[in-house]
């Protein structure tokens, strides 16, 4: 039995395992991403932004409630103006419209 013959026999025994490994390495990440088991960078950025807006809105709500005793009785435009007044600057970019909206919604309840 030659070395080539032994190598061919060994390859035939190992071939299904090697192919399964390659298939798993290629399809595994694709399937797990589609099932939602992975977090993409875009989803991570969106979750980070939502958390930052929520925190800024909580600070804005507390400041506005300290200024006005019953902000829930104000109409929508007055709550929006109150939220603009007490909105927190996020990442040094000025007042964010999303923070104002979240703060205004919190003041409505």
General description of the model:
- The chain has 109 residues and is an all-alpha fold.
- It folds into two domains: 1-38, no CATH class; 42-109.
- 75% of the residues lie in helices and 0% in strands.
- The protein is built from four helices and no strands.
- The protein has helices at 3-34, 41-67, 76-86, 97-108.
- Helix 2 (41-67) crosses helix 3 and helix 3 (76-86) packs across helix 4.
- The chain starts with a helix and ends with a helix.
Number of strands: 0
Note the main sheet.
none
Query: Mean pLDDT, rounded to whole units?
Result: 89
SSE order in H/E notation?
Answer: HHHH
| Class computed from helices, strands and strand pairing | mainly alpha
Cα(first) to Cα(last) distance is 84 Å
Number of helices: 4
Number of domains: 2
Summary tags:
4 helices, mainly alpha, 109 residues
Short structural description:
The chain has helices at residues 3-34, 41-67, 76-86, 97-108.
List the helices and strands and how they pair.
Blueprint: H1 3-34, H2 41-67, H3 76-86, H4 97-108
């Amino acid at each position: 039995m030659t070395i080539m013959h032994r190598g061919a026999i060994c390859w035939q025994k190992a071939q299904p395992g090697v192919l399964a490994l390659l298939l798993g390495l290629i399809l595994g990440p694709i399937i797990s991403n589609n099932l939602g088991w992975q977090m993409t960078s875009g989803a991570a950025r969106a979750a980070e932004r939502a958390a930052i807006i929520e925190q800024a809105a909580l600070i804005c709500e507390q400041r506005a409630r300290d200024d006005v005793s019953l902000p829930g009785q104000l109409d929508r435009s007055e709550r929006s103006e109150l939220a603009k007044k007490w909105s927190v600057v996020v990442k040094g970019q000025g007042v964010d419209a999303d923070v104002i909206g979240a703060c205004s919604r919190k003041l409505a309840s």
